[in-house]
Amino acid sequence: MALLRSARSADSFRRVSVAAEQDSHVVFRDVHMSFDERVVLNGLSCVFPRGKITAILGSSGSGKTTILRLIGGLVRPQRGTIIVAGHDLNGASEHDLYAVREKLGMMFQGGALLNSLTIFDNLAFPLREHTRLSEAEIAAEVHRTLTAVGLSAVDELLPGQLSGGMIKRAALARALLMKPEILLCDEPFSGLDPISVKRIEALLHRINEQMQVTILVSSHHIPSTMRLADQVLLLWNQRATTGTPQALRSSDDPIIAEFFNEEVFDLPEGAESERREGSAHAPSVGAS
Asked: Which end of the chain is more exposed for a tag (fewer CB within 10 A), N or C?
């Protein structure tokens, strides 16, 4: 287990090793974050390994989305250090943060698509704003990325005309358009039927495998986490612990055991290998 810290049990805190930091794409050191009187993160230290999938689990209000917002520089911690892709965010100006955000892709929980624009224009928008591609090149990039997430014939549709699963895939396509190093996914499985959940899982795994993108997924969907994640960051009561899904599943800590309840793991033998096998059914994601 890479980390455990609580303000109430400081003796259990172990600093993240230098070696772990060197192999990580995102590093949190003693990060404190509060909103008015509500403490969200109380001395969080953890690493997010480069090229791996990390799931951030926790109940509502535990700080899952806050961690993603801190990585993007959308909010600033009251104390602590955050390093993203080699950039120290402490005291970074908006100009400095732009260099960091160029390396990030964000898949928002509700999709955050612009309702007045077609799906094509939603995806074309960042390319028109931040590149010098011609309209023909933009169209090619948009269609390549839509195909990669299994969407076709949606150019002229508005977001309100898509199903929940299609909105998630369109949001994922937009997050990938600028070829990010780090992909942040806020509750990508919420509100989806089981088939759509498996499809998003497979897409995220294929993206990680083919493009070597570091993926951080905030979620409360434990079965998906077990199938998808290389590492889990579990948040509860201003405490945090990290480890592999299997390590947390077998933890003798009663709080962790309660979170990973036995019903979740009443799966057929070999079901956890579905993470790798299931991804074979996802559309191929091009790296160019």
From this structure: C
What does pTM read for this prediction? Answer: 0.82
Per-residue pLDDT reduced to its tens digit, 195-252: 889 999 999 999 999 999 999 999 988 888 889 999 999 998 788 999 998 888 888 8
Whether residues 275 and 144 fall in one domain: no
| Residues 131, 61 share a domain | no
Q: Which residues of the chain have pLDDT under 70?
A: 1-22, 261-288
Rounded to whole angstroms, the Cα distance separating 240 from 4 reads 6
